[in-house]
Amino acid sequence: MFWDRVAGVYDVFVNVINxxxxxxxxxxxxxxxxxxxxxxxxxxxAVHLQSKGKTEKRV
Length: 59
What we know:
Elements: H1 2-17, H2 19-51
Helix pairs in contact: 1-2
């Protein structure tokens, strides 16, 4: 597929040419996501599993 062929070029762009911008973007997004989003995702996943008749096992 097309994207499989250009993925390497994208990796070079992100990791070499645009590295500082990419790292800053990751930092900003991770702060925006935060703990509340992680808890929300856990709840959504639990509801999804319950709707399929499965239960989530907590460790």
